[in-house]
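Q: Okay, next protein. This is Alpha/beta hydrolase from Chryseobacterium piperi. I've checked the sequence twice, so it should be correct. Can you predict the 3D structure?
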Amino acid sequence: MEKLTLTTTDHIPIIAHLFSPKNSNNKLLLINSATGVKQHVYFSFANYFSEKGFTVITYDYRGIGLSKPKRMKDFKASMRIWGSEDYKTLTQYIKTHFEGHEKYCLGHSVGALILGMNKDSTMFKEFFFVGTQNAFVGNLKFKTKIEAYLGFGIVQPLATQLLGYFPAHWFGLGESLPKNCAYDWRTLILNKKSTNGLLEKIDDYSKELTQKVFVIRAEDDVWLTEKGVKSLLNTTYPNLKPTYRLVKTAESEKGEIGHVNFFRSYNRKLWDIILNELIHNGEYN
């Protein structure tokens, strides 16, 4: 594992890690993190695929983990900037240093939503979506819907306005978020257009993506619904070619997967779901 410091076009340092295999299969996997989830969560997963011959790259968006500034209040960042600047910085690095590699991208939650914000997304042979959807409240189950209205309609904007950033960790929602990242998240939840509500505010390349996408949804992910997942593929990425995989809790060693735990080391055997798809893709495409 090698630590990388990459600089965006607007001069923000992005900290990434490169997992280089001993015996490379000339395939590369980039991991786009979920909202407020530090790249360390994906290290075991990345190391597993590196052991299988893949070059793997993880990174933290600006404002998160190792890419967090000393002062969070009013730090300039948004989910749209994560896609158009931070993710773009990684794809440019990959294009420069791994030109001959077959390229894949895994988007976890918001990590899949930002693909349409970067024209370089066309370079990937296949995508993997884990725990992602159009998260509009109308797509959620009743209990989660109430929590979403209270949390994102009242608590989140008040806390963000008061502090100049959103203390997501107070509510068990991961790392604290820069102000405009929190407001973009609110758009995803409360705006009926959801992801498209963000894409219409930025250069949108989502309809140019025509690759295969392997879509994984955990049975016990309370923030995810089949309706929300299908909405994302039908309205935001209508030209991708999806295969859907529902992961049952019985397939987990601990009987829990949720929104993040697919990547925990105790769910290691679930990682073969992605590995088998990558191997199948290499053999038959």
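A: Here is a summary of the prediction. The mean pLDDT is 95. The first helix runs from residue 43 to 51.
Q: Noted. On to the next one.
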